[in-house]
Structures are given as C-alpha cells and as structure tokens.
Design brief:
It is elongated and about 75 Å long. It is of the alpha/beta class. The protein is built from 14 helices and 13 strands.
C-alpha cells in the first residue's frame, strides 16, 4: 500500500462477526483500503481477503492495552491517510475512545479522522449492557464528532444514552430467501432464537401444542448447543443445523409459521430471513423484534407462552391470515432488509450520502 492511499482502520472485538463482515464488504465497494486491528484471534473471519491485518501483542492489564492502542493509532495517523476509524464491539469502543482522548491531550488537538462506534450492547446481558453503556457515555461524550452505528434492538437505547441519533444497520438478507417459492410438505412450524431460554421456550410450546389430538410437526433451524439439541429432540423437535442461505431458504419455503424467541432481541437476521421467505412470524416482545415486525400487520409480537400459543393456533387454522401475514412480511423485508439497504446505511454512516453502489441483481420476489 502506498503511503498516501486513503484507508479505513477497523478495531474489532468479540460478538461482531455478522455486521463486521457486512461493513467491510460495503466499504470495499467504494474502493477504500481497509486495515484491521483485532482484539482477539477469531477475527477477521470471512473478511480476511479484503483487509490488511495488523496483529498486536495485547498486554493483560487494561491501562496497558489502552496505551498500546494509543501508540498504534498515533503511528498509523503519521504513516497513513486515515479516512475513518471504526470501533466494533463494546470493548473496542471503550479502549478506542480512551486512546483517542489520550492522543488529543498529548497533541493538543483531536485525531483528524472520522470516528465510528458500533458498541453491540444488544449482545451483552442486561446488567453488563447497562454498565458498559454508562462507561461508553462517559467516554464518548467528549468525542462530539463520533458517529454511532446501532443494531435495531439497541438504537433507541443508545440514542437516549449518548444524546445523539444512531445510524441503524438493518439485517442484510440474501436474495435466496426472497426468490424461494412457497411450498408445502416441510415441518409446519420452524423456530429459532438465542440462548437456553429460547430452547426452553420452544420446547414448552411444542409440549403444549402437541398435547392435543392433532400433532403439529416442529423443527429448530440454526445453531444450538449440545444440551439444547438434546432438550429440543426430547420435546419432539427436529433440529436442522444452519446450512448455507440457499439451503435455509428451501427449508423455510414449506413452513406454516416461524417462531423467534430471544429475551434480548439477538440474532434478528434469522427472523428477517423468515420474513423474506414469506413465512408468518411470531416473535418475543423486545425492542429488537418490534423494530422488524409491525404487530398484526407483518407478524405478531408475543408476550409469553400463552400469547405464542393463541397466535400460532390461529395461524394454523386460518390459511387466509397466513397468506396475508406472509405476503406482508415478505414485502416489508424487500423494502428494508436487503443487502443494499445494509450497504447504504453503512456508507451513509461513513459520510457517503450520494454514492452509487456497484450494480447488483434485482431482488425477485417469488
């Protein structure tokens, strides 16, 4: 890389893989050179070929880590033409903001680059998220020029906490889900979610639903722990490991309904995929789920087991309502959850408001 080439530097930690890969892909479309300072060995994943990796030897103590990142940022600012610095994950935001403040104090002026924060607080437990949120507020408040990028479930909280609007990244759904034709013959009800509470909730619903004379086939689609798999299978639920997008789209094509349980509104991409496939969806009552579903229009928000059961039985009995909800969900996904929508949101956050993206195949709704 030439010294004068404009570039973007990413600093990324745990729990950011999906949005991180999408962000790198979006920025690559406008030709900016991209570098990565990983906070752990699991990155960069699928984005490796698009990145110049700058491995670091991280000390164990927090203050020493801040000084290490401070030195690296200061050196890069002298060596390269930094268009932007993007901090991915709560730890990256905390370390990066403190390092930026230290650089500004020493130099008498802030680092001249666009700073973007993606805290991913939705991936943390409520207690940890609240604590990290308060720390971020203290760190980010002096950095008035920073841009906050949020996932759907955390945007409102972050905006109120930090006193600034957040750029919301919608789920990026592969065209395969829009293009798959609705079919019959698969498990009547698919389910997915995050954590043991989702597994327990789906298992309870299966027992309640199939305690009647007519049995309804149920299946879980997506990653699940070994104990979770055992619990699901004990409840009579078939488990499909997450395949590629085309395989998942084919599985969803025959679903009568899709349940998404997550008390913290995580892994919303799976819900968006089911909507794009035209499957009527029922979801937990969280801010993240409400950001995707309009209750009674493009799906249903359910407050507990009884609510899930009532809405699910209604859909199983009413084919016209299933068709109406499924079509509305697919149309909503086409309006807001495509890869182009995600890329546009990323580039807007980076300051490219009128950029023309590279040609893409149009989304055909089957």
């Amino acid at each position: 890389m030439e010294q004068g080439e404009v570039c973007v530097l990413h600093v990324a930690g745990d729990g950011v893989a999906d949005s991180f890969d999408g962000t790198v892909r979006a920025v690559a479309q406008i030709g900016l050179h991209q570098m990565l300072i990983p906070l752990n060995a699991s990155l960069p994943g699928r984005s490796a070929q698009r990145l110049e990796i700058r491995p670091m030897q991280w000390p164990s103590r927090l203050l020493a880590r801040i000084r290490t990142l401070e030195d690296e940022l200061a050196a890069l600012a002298c060596e390269r033409s930094l268009y932007g610095l993007h901090l991915h994950g709560a730890m990256a935001c905390l370390l990066g903001s403190r390092a930026l403040r230290a650089i500004a104090l020493k130099a008498g002026a802030p680092l001249k680059t666009r700073v973007l924060f993606s805290p991913h607080l939705a991936n943390l437990s409520p207690w940890t998220g609240a604590l990290v949120g308060r720390l971020l507020k203290a760190e980010l408040t002096p950095l008035h020029s920073g841009v906050v990028i949020a996932l759907p479930g955390e945007a409102h909280m972050l905006s109120r906490l930090l006193g600034r609007s957040a750029e919301i990244l919608p789920p990026a759904v592969d065209p395969a889900f829009f293009q798959v034709s609705r079919a019959a013959g698969g498990p009547a009800v698919f389910a997915g979610g995050n954590g043991i509470e989702a597994v327990q909730g789906v298992s309870r619903l299966a027992v309640l639903l199939n305690g009647r004379q007519d049995r309804v086939p149920m299946a879980w689609l997506g990653p699940v722990s070994r104990p979770g798999r055992s619990q699901l299978e004990a409840a009579g639920i078939k488990v499909f490991d997450a395949e590629d997008d085309a395989g998942n789209a084919r599985l969803l094509s025959g679903a009568t309904a899709y349940l998404h349980l997550s008390q913290r509104g995580r892994q919303l991409g799976a819900l968006a995929q089911a909507m794009a496939a035209g499957v009527p969806c029922l979801a937990s009552d969280t801010l993240g789920h409400r950001a995707l579903i309009r209750h009674g229009d493009t799906g249903f928000i359910c407050a507990g087991d009884l609510d899930f059961m009532e809405k699910l039985i209604m859909l199983l009995r009413d084919a016209e309502e299933r068709e109406r909800i499924g079509q509305a969900a697919r149309a909503e996904a086409g309006r807001a959850f495509t890869q182009r929508h995600f890329d546009t949101a990323v580039l807007r956050a980076y300051g490219f408001h009128r950029v023309t993206l590279l040609p893409m195949k149009s989304v055909h709704v089957a």
